[in-house]
Amino acid sequence: MLNIQDIRRQFPILSREINGKPLIYLDNAATSQKPQSVIETEGKYYHTLNANVHRGIHTLSQLATEEMELARKKVQKFINAEHDYEVIFTKGTTESINLITYALSNSGTLKEGDEIIISYLEHHSNIVPWQMLCERTGAKLKVIPINGEGTLDLEYLEKSLTEKTKIVSFNYVSNALGIVNPVEEMISLIRKNSAAWIVIDGAQAVPHFKVDVQKMDCDFFVFSGHKMYAPTGTGVLYGKEKILEIMHPFHGGGEMIETCSFDKTTYAGLPFKFEAGTPNIAGNIGLGAAVDFMNAIGHENLQLHENALLEHAQKKLLEIGNLKIYGECALRTGVVSFNLENAGISSDVGMILDKLGIAVRTGHHCTQPLMNFFGIAGTVRASFAVYNTLEEVDILVEGVKKAQRMLS
Ligand code: C6P
Description:
There is one protein chain. Strand 8, helix 8 and strand 9 (220-224) form a beta-alpha-beta unit. Helix content is 41%, strand content 17%. The chain is an alpha/beta fold. The chain has helices at residues 4-9, 36-49, 59-79, 93-107, 128-137, 154-160, 183-193, 213-216, 241-246, 281-297, 299-320, 346-355, 368-374, 390-407; strands at 17-18, 21-22, 24-25, 87-90, 115-119, 140-144, 165-171, 197-201, 220-224, 235-239, 257-260, 265-267, 323-325, 335-340, 358-359, 361-363, 379-383. The chain folds into two domains: 4-30 and 298-407, Aspartate Aminotransferase, domain 1 (Alpha-Beta Complex), CATH 3.90.1150; 39-295, 3-Layer(aba) Sandwich (Aspartate Aminotransferase, domain 2). It is globular, with a radius of gyration of 22 Å. Helix 3 packs across helix 10 (281-297), helix 11 (299-320) runs parallel beside helix 14 and helix 12 (346-355) crosses helix 14. Bound molecules: ligand C6P.
C-alpha cells in the first residue's frame, strides 16, 4: 500500500495555496508536478557538474556526459528498449513526432499516393505534423473513426491497411478522454495486413503504467518527460535500431556529424545523429531522476491508486446528475472528462473550480477533431497523478456541484 501523505511531502508545490485554499492539482495530463528528488537533481547538475556533454576532455564535461548517458540507460530500462542508443532525447512528444516526420521526408521514404493512418482520438501533435508531411510528399492521410463512446473502429483500420500504407500513428491513451487503446491488438492487426511503420504516442501512457516497447513491437514510441514527474523541455523518441539507421537526420549542426567538410558531411551514429546541438543536459538528467522516482513507487502501486481515484471520481460525479462523462464506459486511465448539461461552458466551470483552489483543464485539450465529433467546444478535464487523494476528489465533486448551482 502506498503512503500517499509520504509521497505528497516529496512535492513542495503541493503545500501552497491558491486563492486562499489548499492547491488541489488535477491538471496532471497537461504537466505533472515535480518531486524534490527531480528538482534537486537538476539543481545539483548546475551546482556541481555544469559543462557541455560529449565534447570535453576535461573532468566536468566527462562527468556531465556520464550522468546524461546514465539517464539514457534509465529510460532504456523504463520502456524496455533493446539498446540505449535507440533512446533519443527530444524536448517532448511534439518534437519527437516532428522529428520522425521530417526525417521521413528527408529520407525520401514517402511518395505521392502513399498513405498514413492516424485516428480521431489524436492530439494535434499527432495530426498536424502528418498533415504537413502529406503536403511535402503528396501522401494521403486516413483517419480511423470512433464510435459514440470514443473507442476506435478497428474494422475500419483493418480495411484501410494496404500496400500503400506506410505509417500508422496513434496514441496509447487519449489525453482528452483517458481512453486506453488496445495497442497490442492494433499492432498485430497492422503487422498482418501491411508493412507500415507503427508510431505510438505514449505521452499519456508512461505516467500511468508500465510500457514495454519490445513486447508491444512498435517501430517508434514517443513521450514527454514533464507529464511523468520530469522537468519541462524533456522527451523521448524511441525507434528500432534498424529503422533509425536508415532514416536521415532532422536537424543538422554540431554533435550529429562524424566528419564535416564543404564537399561532404557524414553523420554520427545513433543516437547522436538525431541530437544536433547542445541538449537539455540538466533536464535529461532530471528525467533519469523521475524514472527513479516512478520505479521507487512501483507501477502496480501507482496504477492501483490512480484507478481508485478515477473510479471514485466517476461514481461521485455521475451522482450529481445532469452531467455527461465522455468515454464513460470505455477502458480509461488517469482522466475524467465531463460537461455539466445546461450549466455554462467548460471554462465557466473551470473558473469556479479555480476560485476553490482546484486546477483542472477546460476547452478542447488540443483535440479539436475529437471535440467536433462530439459536437462540443470542450470539456472539463480532471487528470490524476500518484499524489492525488480521494479527499481531493470529494472536494472537486463539491466544487462541481457549486458550479452547477451557480451556472444553472
Ligand atoms: N497534452 C494536455 O493537456 P508536448 O506538449 O510535446 O509535451 O506533448 C504533446 C502531446 C502529445 N500527445 C498527447 C497524447 C498529449 O497528451 C500531449 C500533451 C497536454 O493534454 C498538453 S496540450
